[in-house]
Amino acid sequence: MTILLDVADVSKLFPVGGGPGPLARFKRRFSGGPEKLPKVYAVDDVSFTINKGETVGLVGESGCGKSTLVRALTRLVDVSDGSIKLGTRELSLKPSRVFARDRDRARIQMVFQDAGESVNPRFTAFDAIADPLRRLRKMHGKALTERVETVASQCGLPLPFLSRYPHQLSGGQRARVGIARAIAVEPELLVLDEPTAALDVSVQVVILQLLQRLKKEFGMSYLFVSHDLSVVRLLCDRVLVMYLGKIVESGPAAEVFEHPLHPYTQALVAAVPRLHENGAGRLRLTGEPRSPIDPDPNVCRFYGRCPLSAAMCKTTMPKLRRFGPRQVACHFAEEFLLVPKA
Amino acid sequence: MTTAAPALSVEGLSVEFRTRSGIVRALDNVSFAVDKGETIALVGESGSGKSVTAYAAMGILDPAGKVTAGRAMLGGLDLLAAKPSQLADVRGREIAMIFQNPRTALNPIRTVGRQIADVLIRHGNVPRRDAPGHAVDMLRAVGITDPARRAKAYPFEMSGGMCQRVMIAIALAAKPSLLIADEPTTGLDVTTQAVIMDLVNDLAKEMGMATIFITHDLALAGQRSARIVVMHAGHVVENAPTEELFNHPRHPYTAELIAATPDSAASLDELASIPGSLPDLRRTDLPPCRYSERCPRKIDACAQPLPRSTSASGHMVACWNPMPERIAAAPTESAA
Amino acid sequence: MTDITATPQREGGVTALFRHARYVIAENPVTGFAFALFVLIVLAAVIGPDIVPYNPLTSDTAQAMKPPSAHHWFGTDQLGRDVFSRVIVATRLDFFIAVASVALVFLMGGLAGVAAGFFGGWTDRIVGRIADTIMAFPLFVLAMGIVAALGNTVQNIVLATAIVNFPLYARIARAEANVRREAGFVEAARLSGNSDWRILAFQILPNVFPIMVVQMSLTMGYAILNAAGLSFIGLGVRPPTPEWGIMVAEGAAFMVSGEWWNAFFPGLALMVAVFCFNLLGDGLRDMVDPRRRT
């Protein structure tokens, strides 16, 4: 198992409300050292790896930082701290502003959630798929057309549809355009940000099976971001669970869902609607998440909302600990390990 | 099945929309009923007509839409034939609706407390003076902490989950006998979704209120409803108690829908997509069964007008060649 | 998201545009009328000077101040020049002023605006301050000042009009760019190897253009009025060049003595042109507004 992506201690902080204006910053230079500005810890000290050929799921709810993490990994945004290594290359060194022209740009690509939003409404499907080929592979003319048509066919998009505009395509067809565009430059790592969230369930099946097939055919690795645990369970080998900027649990997908070790994961799994189960009387999360602004580094992020919330949770931040193939950041992980599977 | 009159009975509802490219026959002869205090789900993919049904019943169809046939009986009143003044009285007092995007469904320039009070004054027979106090009580009832302070807040200051709670408070303020919830949890986190659905279920039970829950998520529908009505391309294709529907689906579309739901499969390869695609509802030559063109069980009889057969256990299916009764078409119950 | 709208349409962007245009015109005949009028004006501007019966500059004092007749449809002015010919020939100049002003302000304001909206930060602040400075002056006074300072030439009139309209275009462009800055397709473009400038030029600007087009047609009307106004007070085009504004100015003095045709016809032409451009703007907005589609 070779490691394709090695993410180590990545953090991304945002100044609250955009920060002070240039005049205030200018003044501050003369008034003594930089005083502490309130910051949102969108991603806080996250580390994980993705192996070649693996599909890793990333789950978490709104505000957990997965969007920010994904944008940092794909180099659309710079990290505040930490390293992102793709193979042997350290990606965090080059600023995101200029990464678009980097020679390794094609190695990580992304499929977006709403293909209707992520394709320029003035571009035809052909233009959309051709754009990365023109810019990153310098292709044009006949070679370009052939490549676009090949990729479109591989993604199940009938060739006549290439001359259509996004608003003339159905949801499933738009999704195929988004996928075709992303794989056209043969990336090693494909990040999928909720690619089927906007699709009907029957179309979702087709797209998921397509993604599975493409992965095997081209030997890509996937980072599959989703809020839909049922889908993640089917598609992913491993899953990472994020909460308020931190990874709280990780492990093989089936195991994490059947036997969640972290209280947050337990609540998440309990909340997922299942076909053959009644909804009432399950474990429920109450209250609102803690503030992501300047969080106390000694208090567990889940403290207060967690049904356990013990004294220790208030004084020591639980570290991500390894238990075989699983990792959990909870002081009480051992006790959950011992509980027999439900 | 009770013999008392249902809370809402939709009978033979047909709706058409005038569009630039032709007339869309959005609903064709839709019939179903909700008993008092019952929670049912209206399930279907996009284009099935489930939301149109609700909007037609509430009288808030898009101006391009027209009800061409049918009744929607709320007690003794036909909502589709009622005068606007009658409708205005009934809406809020007897029948209420909550929508998909909570923040946009709320008035952005009125505090949430005022919005609840508005309903109380208009429909709840609460004197103007007492309304703000009752509004705070409603906020507490829907689980908003510090309700007195929150009543003075504006929608943009609240999270999506909180806005949805406010919308529920507004809908239930005048204690209607029927609540229609149109995809109320789409866009919310799954943990928030669970809490909101718990809330709606609990309040409904407390108030003896009937609920029609519209969703595309079959698993979600199953968890929360006693009965499920499956719609396809403007038709009701099946109507059965939940467990019965999942374990013994009779309409081919229902079976395919279940087989396409991720939760029903142990691996990706087991998931089945639904063959074909929705027919174009603008066609004038639509077959009587709108699923027949993509149905693997199609027979010659399918060219005739749709039958509707209801079993003794209350399982209705509209099909000439339904799956046989009592066959375990569902996957075996998996652990956890 | 319904499949109802996803039926095969074998048409690309331009054919769809024509069909949509036909639909809008059918829905609102006034728009069709505006389009037809616009074509007429363009025709007058392009071939007018070649087909007019009289030379607009030739004076014939014997024929001075004659009322409209079979020989002179719009009568003659105080120097015996045919008013009709002058009005038609003036179309070219006024139309040129309109088009040039609009093109210039679109380039200046549009580019500055999208850059401000897209990059934010200092770019945004500087463009904002420039716009604020311009807006601090009453617009016509500012135009007067610019032309007075730089000289009475057509180029300066065009420049003055463009400067005066700069804040409006910059604001529209900035708002649009701001909205689209976070759009999915901008991120996708970055992933595809587009630098920020390429994204601005090829992704954002084409999306901003349709909205600007509506404003541009309205500005055309304004530009002509502005030029006419400046000429009226002597700061615009110099005689004997035929231009609607000067003609109204010169003819105004004769209104009192009953010789109405001198000022009336150029004034009418002004009115018709501005009216046409405004109607055009309305029609274009209907065409461009996505809510009117489907």
Question: What report would you give on this structure?
Answer:
The complex is a heterotrimer of chains A (342), B (336) and C (294). Chain A has helices at residues 22-30, 66-73, 96-99, 115-118, 125-136, 141-154, 171-183, 201-218, 229-235, 253-258, 263-271, 311-315, 333-338; strands at 3-15, 39-51, 55-59, 81-86, 89-90, 108-111, 189-193, 221-225, 238-243, 246-252, 321-323, 326-328. Chain A has 342 residues and is of the alpha/beta class. In chain A, the strands form two sheets. Chain A has an eight-stranded mixed beta sheet, with helices on both faces. Chain A has a four-stranded antiparallel beta sheet with strand order 2-1-4-5, covered by helices on one side. In chain A, helix 5 packs across helix 6, helix 5 runs parallel beside helix 7 (171-183) and helix 6 (141-154) packs across helix 7 (171-183). Chain B has 336 residues and is an alpha/beta fold. Chain B is built from eleven helices and twelve strands. In chain B, helix 4 packs across helix 5. The two termini of chain B are 32 Å apart. By secondary structure, chain C is mainly alpha-helical. Chain C has helices at 13-27, 29-51, 83-119, 121-135, 139-150, 154-181, 184-191, 196-232, 244-255, 261-288. Chains in contact: A-B, A-C, B-C. Chain A binds chain B through residues 61-62, 171, 200-206, 208-209, 212, 227-231, 233-235, 258, 267-268, 270-280, 282, 284-288, 341-342, and chain B through 45-46, 145, 159-160, 189-195, 197-198, 201, 216-220, 222-224, 246, 256-258, 260-265, 267-269, 271-274, 330, 333, 335-336.
